[in-house]
Each structure stands twice: as C-alpha cells, then as structure tokens.
Design goal:
Elements: H1 16-29, E1 35-36, H2 48-58, H3 73-87, E2 97-100, H4 103-114, E3 120-125, H5 129-137, E4 141-146, H6 157-161, E5 168-173, H7 186-199, E6 202-206, E7 231-236, E8 249-253, H8 255-265, H9 274-284, H10 288-311, E9 315-316, E10 324-328, H11 336-347, E11 349-350, E12 352-353, E13 364-368, H12 373-401
Parallel strand pairs: 1-11, 3-4, 3-5, 5-6, 6-7
Antiparallel strand pairs: 2-8, 7-8, 9-10, 10-13, 12-13
Cofactor: pyridoxal 5'-phosphate
Domain Aminotransferase class I/classII large: 33-382
EC number: 2.6.1.-
C-alpha cells in the first residue's frame, strides 16, 4: 500500500545534519575515523552541581510521573532570576516564562500558534535551517532577508521597509547570529524593535549563544524599551550550560502571547522530567566563574580552529561569538560544499558548508569548537599532511611535464 506524505512536507526535506551524520557514521563504520567539526554539540560536561541535582531528584519515589505543562514554579522562578541577573529583564515567573523541551521545539510551537496559510515570515539568509522548515510546515510564505559581510551580517531595515510587508506576521532574528558569530548591539536592536512596531510584526528572537566567547555582557532583546509589546525571546541551556541532550529551553515575553503558545504546546508534550527541571534550576544559579571556565576552554580551542581554517586558505572574521568559526572559502574552491567535500575526502575532517544556511552562505564554511584540543590538533595535522601531499603531487606532475634534455 502506498501512503502519501502530507502536503505540508512538500518543500521540507530531512534536516541536513540528520543526513550528514548517517553518512559520517557509514564512513566511520568502514574505518575512516572522521573528525567531525560540523555540529555544535558541547562535549564538555555540565557543572557537578547540575548532575548532583539530577541524580538526587531521580532517587525520589515521586519524581517519575507526568509534570505540568508550564514547568515547576521553581524552574520558572530560576529562569526569571536568570533573566534579571544577566540581562536586567524583570519577568513574572507565573505568566511570562514558559519552559520548553529545547528552544528548537519552541520555534515550532510559536510557528504553529501564530502562522497559517497566507501569512508571510521573514527569515535570515544565512540562518538556522529550522527557521525555514517551521514556516513551510505551517503553510506560510518564506521571505528571506539578506545578511552579508558588507552590512556586518545585520539586516538592512530601511530596505526591508520599502518592500510590501502587509502579510508579514513574524520575523525570526538570531543574535549573536549563527552561523556568522555576529553580535548585535543595543542601538541596532532598538531600531529592530521600532521596525517591528511600525509594521506590526511579531519578532521572535533566538538567543542561545550570548554567553559563549562574548567579550561584552550578553543582551536580551526584551531589555530594549518597547520590545515586550512586539517580541518573544527563545533561550536555551544547551550551549551555555552544556545541556544540549537534556533539552532545556525557554520562551519568555508577554503573558497573553505565552498563554496562546501554551494552548498548542499542551497538546504536544506531557511536561519535562522533574529531575531535569531540578538540574536546570541548579544550572541557572551558576555564576560568572562557570562562564569564565567554559570560555577559557573555548578560547584555546578557537585558536586551533582558526589555525586549521587558515591552513585551508580561509580567513575568519574577527570578533565572532558562539561555538563556531565562520570563514570565507578561498578562490581555489567554487563554494563551501566543494571545500567541505575535499577536506572530508582528503583529510578525513568534516567542516560544515555554509550553503546549508542559505544562498548567502555558499562562499563560506563553519567549523565547530566542540572537540577537545587533542582532537583539534589531530585535525590540524591531518589538514597539513593532506596539503603537503597535494603539493608533492603537483611538484611531481610539474617535473614530469618538463621537456627532457
């Protein structure tokens, strides 16, 4: 029997990394021993207090049942305290904080709550591929806004304002930006809020990278005056607290908007495992020492990844924030896909082609910092050995092509 897929999936393919990880697994099964610098899944453990809270709560006999759809008061309070301490944003934990099973889940919840056929969504190019996927699944029209090096990877709001925005309901934004590592300052975010207000667009700000290799204090969009009227913000403990597999995120903002999202979310899950919630409470209470220790490790790794990319002829832009390094592809390669494929085949190192994030990323690659220094040094050695072998072959071919005397 043939069963057709729903039309909502017509434009949505399998997530790139889902396919790529299968390919890498097959290569490793054949003995390739690939070094994966593609995905930003932190390899470092959480703070010991976090795992202690998890195990202590898991030992309680009443910890294993269904949980509330809004999370425990303790978790919502910890999230609100986190926003007050780090961003200077006051939130009502009862109504303005909604815990999530990861912020990726939150993107779908927000899209399914507010979008329908006929609506349009502004998404960044380049940007996280899930932004496009959730819009398409909801039947909304995707409208890309360009980000490029010439504009500092920030949208040209004046140019956007000259377009027909009458059907635009949501605008997805992400700063510090992934994949480019660009941080947005308060003056830009202020202009963004005013743009949304003028055009009656709901901003959805995806903000998981502000604590990683950020030399300035992290910023919440909700700290901008007037933002609460036009914006929701997603945040996550995946990168900042090494809890990627634990799936702990949050959506914060206006109470009425969160109540609408909860109407959808409550039909999709049965709450977060209580030990994970208690562990998240412990994680959110960590202070500056935790982030400094984390960033000390990432700074050392960043130097090695930059050296590796430069060995490939790529030149990363300075001042990048987050778990990745974004770099332009040298002229010897047509695009990031070509360079990625060549490095995978020749050096057994995988780096992400920038084109998966949109057409404006085609001339770039992205490399992750989520490998130990020993692995990054091995990756660098493989790249240098590969390059040396290529140079030797070219020299041999050049010698062989010379006329014999």
């Amino acid at each position: 029997m043939q069963v057709s897929t729903a039309s909502r999936l017509a434009q949505t393919g399998e997530y790139y990394f889902s396919r790529k990880l299968r390919e890498l697994a097959a290569l490793n099964a054949a003995g390739a021993n690939i070094i994966n610098l593609g995905i930003g899944s932190p390899d470092l453990p959480p703070h010991p207090s976090v795992t202690a809270a998890l195990t202590a709560t898991a030992a309680l006999p009443n910890a294993h049942g269904y949980q509330g759809y809004q999370g425990t008061p303790a978790l919502r309070g910890a999230m609100a305290d986190f926003y007050q301490r780090h961003y200077g944003v006051a939130l009502d934990p009862a109504t303005e904080v909604l815990p999530l099973l990861g912020s990726k889940e939150g993107l779908m919840h927000v899209a399914m709550t507010f979008l329908e056929a006929g609506d349009a969504v502004l998404i960044p190019n380049p940007g996280y591929p899930t932004y496009r996927a959730v819009a398409e699944i909801c039947g909304a029209e995707v409208r890309e806004y360009d980000l490029n090096a010439a504009t500092g990877w920030l949208p040209d709001l004046n140019a956007l304002a000259q377009t027909d925005l009458s059907r635009v309901k949501l605008m997805l934004v992400n700063y510090p930006h992934m994949p480019t590592g660009t941080a947005a300052d308060v003056p830009f975010l202020t202009r963004l809020v005013e743009f949304a207000r003028q055009h009656e667009i709901l901003l959805v700000h995806d903000n998981p990278y502000g604590f990683v290799l950020n030399e300035t204090p992290p910023v919440s969009l909700l700290a901008v005056p007037g933002a609460r009227e036009v914006a929701l913000e997603l945040n996550s403990l995946s990168k900042s607290h090494n809890l990627a597999g634990w799936r702990v995120g949050m959506l914060v903002g206006r109470a009425d908007l969160l109540a609408a999202v909860l109407r959808f979310k409550s039909n999709m899950d049965s709450g977060m495992f209580l030990p994970v919630q208690q562990a998240a409470v412990a994680a959110l209470a960590l202070g500056p020492d935790w982030f400094e220790e984390l960033n000390t490790t990432y700074r050392a790794r960043r130097e090695l990844v930059i050296e590796l990319l430069r060995a490939l002829g790529c030149e990363p832009a300075p001042g990048q924030v987050g778990l990745f390094i974004w770099a332009a592809v040298p002229a010897a390669f047509v695009d990031g896909y070509a360079l990625s494929d060549a490095v995978l085949a020749g050096a057994r190192v995988f780096i992400t082609p920038g084109g998966i994030f949109g057409s404006n990323g085609e001339g770039y690659v992205r490399a992750s910092l989520c490998q130990p220094e020993s692995v990054l040094r091995e990756a660098l050695n493989r790249v240098n050995t590969w390059k040396s072998n290529i140079q030797e072959r070219h020299a041999e071919q050049s010698e062989a092509s010379r006329p014999q005397k």
